Amino acid sequence: MSVLENWDSWKDFLGDRLHHAQNEGMQEEVIHDLAYQIGGYLANQVDAKNDQERILADLWSVASKEEQHAIASSMVKLVQNNGSVK
Question: This protein's superkingdom (predicted)?
Fold first, then answer.
């Protein structure tokens, strides 16, 4: 099963990557910019594997660039307490 097929697994995966980036000293601004870029890629190139991903893709498709940045920042906050590395 792909990490994308289960919402909780996806959040844990993102949380692990976020904590790794923070532990390596990556700046918050860079993290948020990467989240925005990844969000755009996923929305445009990857088929949603669950209801939550479908909702995010739909929201992303109608959002302005500023709103997309807000969605990406919200996802960073959402996964802040997920993953195994904190």
Answer: Bacteria
Identify whether 85 is part of a domain.
no
Within a domain: residue 48?
yes
The 10s digit of each residue's pLDDT in 51-77 is 888 999 999 999 999 999 999 999 999
Of 35-39, 76-80, 82-86, the least confident: 82-86
Contacts of 70 (CB under 8 A, 6+ apart): 63
* Contacts with 40 (C-beta within 8 Å, 6 or more apart), sequence order: 60, 68
Contacting residues for 33 by C-beta, under 8 A, at least 6 apart: none
Torsion of CA 29, 32, 36, 41, to 10 degrees: 110
